[in-house]
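Hey,
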Amino acid sequence: MDRLILLRHGKAEADAVSGQDFDRALTDRGRRDTLVVCKALAEAGIHPDLALVSPAARAVQTWELAATVFTRAVFKIVPALYEIAPAQILKIAHSEGGAARTVMIVGHNPGLGALSVRLAQEARGSIDGLSRIEMGFPTGAASVIGFDPPSFELYTPKVLEGRA
């Protein structure tokens, strides 16, 4: 794996009809933000070979939208990604990644945000990206981490749409 994309699910409804967090669906804004970020990644030449996706409804829906942009990516639902520590996310990316050069994880905070901060600090990526990720990892955001050479970039819907 040369590159890792951490994609946080889009904005989700506050409560699912079932009452279960696992079942919360994307809102219209969440769908829009997901497409904005994924299209920006594609325009920058960043395409996953493999997507590892949390089984929660909002993460699966996020991937379904991302898949309309990243049509060649293979995807796999990974149940462990629903509630997981940052170090475990990276371990899954390496163990499941196989021959994939670019792996995307579609999941949740706080794990993705904490891992993004750690990898951004290690990569000494762009000052702007590092300072923004330290302020939080919003829904619909993607961090892109390069391993050789080390790099870090952050894509957020607000910045991409000029709202920030």
